[in-house]
Specification:
The complex is a heterodimer of chains A (about 150) and B (about 600).
Chain A (H helix, E strand, L loop, with lengths): L1 H11 L3 H8 L4 H4 L2 H5 L4 H6 L24 H11 L1 H10 L3 H10 L3 H20 L6 H11 L1
Chain B lengths: L5 H7 L13 H5 L2 H7 L7 E2 L14 H14 L3 H4 L1 H10 L11 H10 L3 E7 L12 E7 L9 E7 L7 H10 L2 E9 H11 L4 E6 L3 H13 L3 E5 L6 H9 L17 H7 L10 E7 L2 H11 L2 H12 L5 H6 L3 H21 L5 H16 L23 E9 L2 E13 L12 E13 L5 E12 L14 E10 L8 E13 L5 E12 L8 E12 L4 E12 L2 E16 L4 E9 L3 E10 L1
Helix pairs in contact in B: 6-10, 7-10, 11-12, 13-16, 14-16, 16-17
Classes of the chains: A mainly alpha (about 150), B alpha+beta (about 600).
Chain lengths: ~150, ~600
């Protein structure tokens, strides 16, 4: 398990361009099993289901399939968004926040570009929330991918 | 820093030579505390999942045999060095003349590249009374990356593998008796942020340790060795705090478990960080990561009257009114209200398992307004509570005198842990008590020593609202079981008991809480009239100053199986804080007869 995490973290540090090319046709929810396996109903509740025991922690680390295309930073970002969707949405409405910083770090977005990316995602999600449309981690992820 | 760790000694000094200048023997090296800890000698053995952790047949308790087996393996099977990088680091320093075959460890190097950093934090998660496994808190380590946000840092945590089919009672029995296997697991820090801060509403305290990169790498090396291994888990000793203490003792030359104490509590490990050999703390910085509940309270207290009124109105009105109510505010005021509403909804999602759809709709409408405003956070004033390492220590020895019907008695008390309603412990849940193995003895003139009371477990959580907002409270409750004298008017009238109450608490001002509850008691003896009693109890806690606090309770119960009989009780206790180690108590108790006393307490 350590090795998988290490390798995933290593891959996260790779350049964005190469990963994007390999993953641009990947839907992490459909192809990597994020929603189906870990997050059936409620993202938060499911995410903590295996770590509810303080002194009995079972790691929730290998969330994605073993396919190579599911090990890159886009999928890592998708998992992060799924896990932390509530905070990510709140911070997006506020325009800044530590979860947004972490998400940008995962995606390797240049510092100079981050404000623009967040502003664009914020504009997209503002429309979704105002229209009372379905807001889901997947919707958010698609907005992010479209703007980086 | 002047402090020198064992690893620094290993790395920088000539400890391959003994005091008289001779080369250290295998036996001497095998007895080195770092080598012994790498093998977990005198602990529960490390069990490998697919292959043995030990190379020698008796390696779990024979450090010399394991040393010799490791030396042989490194020579004869060079790839074994990749499985034991911490042993390799250690042996390279102790056997400078011995050249192990050079071997590339690609997987281990990838692990190091991903994990190693220049700093390491020990993180303490405050206790959580909703779950017996979490009552005493938790600790884990975080490897701090300067290149990415803290949320993406890697962590290692030690815990028991608990089957989902095991209920809380099974957990307590098996957890305390060695019925589970424990192991280290790694997660990104944002999982802990989600679990503790958001889902269990627990505060996290981060102690950034004074370790350098080789020391951090040595810890990582040993964690690598523990991959796919397990150790028998014991809730009160070989638990998360114990294993992390032993892990850190690889590079810290200060004992991190309290000598003379059997049980090891997570907060004890935090306390030990204040005790380096030279008197300096073992950490360089303390950071607070507050829970969502903490954020709600902080933000609510900083709202002005108009903002509070708007928030209250939004919560009281139908969701459709949310937009109109927020429209009456200037943007900066609306931002503060919306941020606090976010906290409130998240808090209610935990308190009620799932917040009502109406509340989610209010949040959506508030969020729509937030999106429509210019980006930018509210400049909340940062509030950092007093850190848990300032609390009184967890084990108690107490002595004192009492007077009962003109008969004096010497009182002796031992409490294994953790705190009562008056213990100075800023890191804990406000107005709560968690006591285990609390034994009180009394010695009276002309009488033998007698057990006055023995609480195996006593938990109180008054759950008073701190904001007055709807849902910012829960039932006040108590659960206790043990053995005690049933009256102050008799000497040998002890009985096993289980008791509790359920009620409501109010906090009219900071540091004050009052409660009323229905109560019940079951006793093994019917000497006082019956075995089952039910009635009512009222009480409270008042903190006059940080040093002076008082708790009180009074109750009346009728015996259900002997309705003509009843019992009344009154307890008043005051505490004068002297230091982390000492306080003074004055008590008054009426239970069939009045008894007053004074005690001095020593915490360790």
């Amino acid at each position: 398990m350590f090795k998988k995490i290490a390798m995933a973290a290593t891959l996260m540090t790779a350049t964005l361009s190469g990963q994007t090319l390999a993953q641009e046709n990947i839907n992490p929810w459909k192809h990597c099993g994020i929603g189906a396996i870990i997050f059936d109903d409620n993202g938060t509740a499911a995410a903590i289901s295996n770590v509810i025991w303080d002194l009995g922690t079972t790691a929730v680390s290998s969330k994605v399939s073993s396919a190579d295309s599911c090990e890159g930073k886009l999928v890592t970002a998708a998992v992060f968004i799924q896990d932390n969707f509530k905070k990510v949405m709140e911070e997006t409405s506020q325009g800044e926040g530590e979860h947004l910083v972490a998400m940008m770090d995962i995606l390797g977005v240049e510092q100079a570009e981050r404000a623009n990316v967040i502003a664009a995602v914020r504009a997209d999600m503002a429309g979704v929330v105002a229209a009372n449309a379905q807001t889901s981690p997947e919707t958010y992820y698609n907005a992010v991918v479209a703007n980086i | 820093m002047l402090r020198r760790s064992l690893l620094r000694i290993v790395l920088l000094s000539c400890i391959t030579f003994n005091a008289i200048g001779q080369i250290a023997t295998d036996s001497q090296i095998a007895a080195h505390p770092v080598w012994e800890q790498l093998l977990h000698i005198r602990q529960t053995p490390v069990t490998g999942v697919s292959q043995s952790f030990y190379l020698a047949a008796d390696g779990s308790d024979n450090s010399l045999a394991e040393l010799q087996a490791t030396l042989a393996a490194f020579q004869q099977h060079p790839q074994s060095q990749c499985r034991y990088p911490a042993r390799r680091l250690f042996l390279q320093r102790y056997y400078p003349a011995r050249h192990f075959p050079v071997v590339a460890c690609a997987e281990y190097q990838a692990y190091l590249d991903a994990f190693v950093t220049d700093s390491l934090s020990l993180i303490y998660a405050s206790g959580y009374l909703g779950n017996p496994a979490s009552m005493f808190g938790h600790v884990f380590v975080k490897f701090n990356s300067d290149g990415e946000h803290d949320l993406l840092d890697n962590t290692f945590s030690y815990g028991a593998s608990v089957p989902e089919s095991d209920n809380k009672l099974a957990y307590m029995i098996k957890g305390t008796s060695g019925g589970y296997e424990g192991h280290f697991t790694n997660q990104k820090y944002h999982h802990h942020d989600l679990t503790y801060n958001e889902s269990e509403l627990r505060n996290l305290w981060e102690y950034r340790l004074d370790l350098d990169r080789p020391e951090v790498e040595f810890i990582l090396a040993h964690l690598w060795e523990l991959e796919n291994t397990s150790m028998t888990y014991y809730f009160f000793r070989q638990n998360c705090a114990y294993q992390l203490a032993k892990l850190l003792e690889l590079v810290i030359d200060t004992p991190l478990t309290e000598p003379g104490k059997y049980q090891v509590m997570p907060v004890d490990l935090i306390m030990r960080l204040n005790k380096s050999a030279n008197g300096e703390p073992l950490y360089t910085e303390v950071r607070f990561h507050g829970s969502r509940q903490q954020a709600l309270y902080e933000h609510y207290l900083q709202l002005n009257a108009q903002q509070r009124n708007t928030l209250t109105a939004i919560l009281a009105a139908p969701a459709a009114q949310t937009t109109r109510l927020l429209a009456a505010l200037e943007d900066e005021d609306a931002k503060a209200v919306i941020d606090t509403l976010y906290d409130y909804v998240a808090f209610q999602e935990v308190r009620q398992d799932e917040a009502a759809a109406e509340l989610h709709e209010k949040k959506r409408l508030a969020m729509a307004r937030r999106f429509a405003m210019a980006p930018g956070k509210v400049q909340w004033q940062s509030v950092t509570p007093i850190a848990p390492h300032h609390a009184q220590l967890t084990s108690l020895l107490q002595t004192g005198l009492s007077v009962n019907n003109n008969v004096s008695a010497v009182l002796l008390r031992y409490r294994a842990n953790y705190y009562d309603l008056l213990t100075y412990n800023p890191g804990r849940i406000p107005f709560s008590e968690l006591s285990t193995f609390d034994l009180r003895l009394a010695y009276r003139d002309n009488h033998a020593l007698s057990v006055q009371q023995f609480n195996l477990l006593k938990v109180i959580n008054l759950n008073a609202s701190q904001t007055g907002l709807p849902g910012d409270d829960a039932l006040a409750w108590k659960m206790a079981l043990g053995y005690r004298q049933q009256s102050n008017a008799c000497l040998h009238c002890g009985s096993a008991f289980v008791e509790g109450f359920v009620g409501k608490a109010w906090s009219p001002a900071a540091g004050q809480v009052f409660y009323g509850a229905v109560s019940g008691t079951a006793t093994s003896s019917n000497r006082m009239g019956g075995n089952l009693a039910a009635g009512a109890e009222m009480g409270g806690v008042i903190t006059f100053t940080p040093k002076l606090a008082m708790s009180f309770s009074a109750g009346h119960q009728w015996y259900i199986n002997a309705l003509s009989e009843h019992r009344q009780y009154v307890e008043v206790e005051t505490r004068w804080l002297i230091s982390q180690h000492w306080d003074l108590r004055a008590t008054y108790q009426y239970l069939g007869q009045a008894e007053a006393g004074v005690q001095i307490s020593y915490y360790y």
